[in-house]
Write a structure and sequence with these properties.
Elements (H helix, E strand, L loop, with lengths): L2 H19 L18 E2 L1 H4 L10 E2 L5 E6 L10 H18 L9 E3 L5 E3 L4 H7 L3 E2 L11 E6 L11 H18 L6 E3 L11 H4 L1 H12 L1
Parallel strand pairs: 1-5, 3-7, 3-8, 4-7
Antiparallel strand pairs: 2-6, 4-5
């Protein structure tokens, strides 16, 4: 099944289950008239390493979202297992090469449309909607923004798979709802530094903001 069709099927099944018996754990589900809460695999689910130090939880809500890409291979493996392997790859890079306490991003979106929690504690903070975890993704913005990174590298005209795009929209809409972030307050890493990150996603930010706004209405 094509990954975009798989995601639509997951949402439809979750919506039907929510209407019949309320929200089910582990699947996306509708929240009344609000944005859809996406299925997110927490650090325990994908087997993350323990942080090598203290992860700071900020006792207020973020005011914006910063989108990144991870500059990993543009894999055609759209499986959940691949999403987990990618989460491990990012964590190892950030902890072992960069010397950071944990993954720098709060969340990652795979090319197959699977979401994984990045820095430990980011998922319960998001679902609670009142605090967020201090990441290490954008210089000067980490105390104000949550970082969402998309698997792959999108330089030189590379385009993200539809499933990744759809899930990024869903995750951003849910985060905006949970934290009271305006849909216009979604930016790219490039907005805050000399970098090409997030590649073509930066050009797509106006469309992303518009689709997030629509998903929240």
């Amino acid at each position: 099944m094509h990954p975009s069709n798989l995601f639509r099927r997951r949402l439809l099944l979750a919506g039907a289950a929510g209407l019949a018996a309320g929200a089910l754990s582990g699947v996306a589900h509708a929240r009344g008239a609000a944005a859809v809460q996406p299925d997110i695999d927490g650090t325990k689910v994908w087997g993350a390493r323990s942080p090598q130090g203290t992860v700071s939880v900020l006792q207020y809500r973020p005011s914006r979202i910063v989108v990144h890409h991870t500059v990993s291979a543009n894999s055609t493996d759209y499986s959940r297992a691949r999403a987990h392997a990618h989460a491990h790859w990012v964590q190892d890079l950030h902890m072992d090469d960069n010397g950071w306490v944990d993954t720098g991003y709060n969340f990652l979106v795979s090319r197959g449309g699977w979401i994984t929690e990045g820095r430990a504690g980011s998922l319960p903070a998001l679902t609670g909607g009142r605090t967020f975890v201090l990441g290490a993704h954008t210089s000067g913005q980490n105390t104000q923004a949550i970082g969402i990174a998309c698997e792959g590298q999108y330089h030189a005209g590379a385009q993200p798979p539809q499933a990744q795009w759809e899930v990024l929209v869903t995750l951003c809409a849910y985060a905006c709802d949970q934290y009271g972030i305006a849909s216009t307050q979604i930016f790219g890493h490039k907005d805050y530094g000399t970098t090409e990150c997030p590649g073509v996603y930066h050009d797509m930010l106006p469309e992303l903001r518009a689709e997030v706004a629509a998903a929240r209405s």
